[in-house]
User: Fold this.
Amino acid sequence: MIHQVNKKDLKIGISACLVGEKVRFDRSSKPSNFCINDFGQHVTYQSFCPEVAIGLPIPRPTIRQIKQDDIIKVARPDGTGDVTEALKAYGKKVASMTKHLSGYVFCAKSPSCGMERVKIYNSEGNSLVSNGVGTFAKEIMEANPLLPCEENGRLNDPLIRENFVARVYAYKHWQNLNASGLTKHKLTTFHSQYKYTVMSHDLVAYKNLGRLLARSDMALEDVAQQYILGLMTALKIIATRKKHANTLSHIQGYFSKHLGANERQELCEQINAYRQGLVPLMAPLTLIKHYLLQYPKAYLAQQSYLSPYPDRLRLRYAY
Ligand code: SF4
Assistant:
C-alpha cells in the first residue's frame, strides 16, 4: 500500500523551534502538537534553525524584514546587523543538501522561516504589508517547487492539514518510483493509482495528465517532469466536500452490479449525508472499503484515494 512508508524513510524538513528546540530569539521554542505527537509518529524530522546556523546567538535581538528602496533586507529593527545574504546562502546550501525531503513545515510569520504573509516594515519601523516570504524559506521553496510545504499555524485547519499530509505521501511515492527507475509502464500505473485522488482535487487536471502520458513525441524524462509538476499543482487545490462526494459517487459505480437495493441505498445515504456535512468523509469511505472486501476490485483496491496516508492520523474524521 502507498502509505506503508517506513518512518525512517519519510524525511520531513522542519523549523527547529516547532519540534521543541529552544532556538528562538528569547530562548523559547514553539512546539507544534500535530507535528510532534501525530505526524511525528510517522515521519523523521530533519530540523533547521537558519538564524542559529548563520551564527546568531541564543538569545538574540529580534530581526525583521525591512524594505528600503525596493530592496528587502533582514536586520534588527534599527536596520543594523543585516543577515539577508547569510540567510540566503544558508537556504541555498540546505536546499542543495535536502533533495531527499518529502515535505517541509515552516514556522509561520518568521522573517527567516515564514512561508507567506511575513510582515515587512519600512525603515521608520512601521509595518507596511504582510505579504513577505521568509528569506531562508524562499530559497528552499524556489529550489524545489515540487516539495510539499506548509506552516505550523495553517496546519491547525483540518482541510489544510489533510491536504499537506496527502501531498507528502504522494510525493514520497513519486520519489520512490523514480529511485526504482522510471519506465513508461510505471508512470502509467502511477497515474491510474491517482485517478480518484486527482478527481477529488481537480477533474480537469486528471484528464490533462492522462493526455500528457499519451504523447509519443516527448521523451519519458520530459513527460515525467511535466507530469509530477501537474500532479503536485493539482493536489494543492483543496478537495472540497462537493468534489469528494462526486468522487465517491464515481467509485460507487464499481459496485452497482453487486450491491442489493438496500446496500445501494445505504451507500447513497452515506454519500449524501457526507455531502450535506452530516458525517465525516470516513463514514462513506468505511462503507466503500467494506464493500471492496466483499466484492474485490483490483483497480479500486490500488487507488491512493482509499488509503492516501496512515489511517492512524485520523485526518478524514475531521471534515
Ligand atoms: S522560526 Fe526559524 S529562525 Fe526562528 S527560531 Fe524557529 S527555526 Fe529558528
In short: DSSP finds 13 helices and eight strands in the chain.
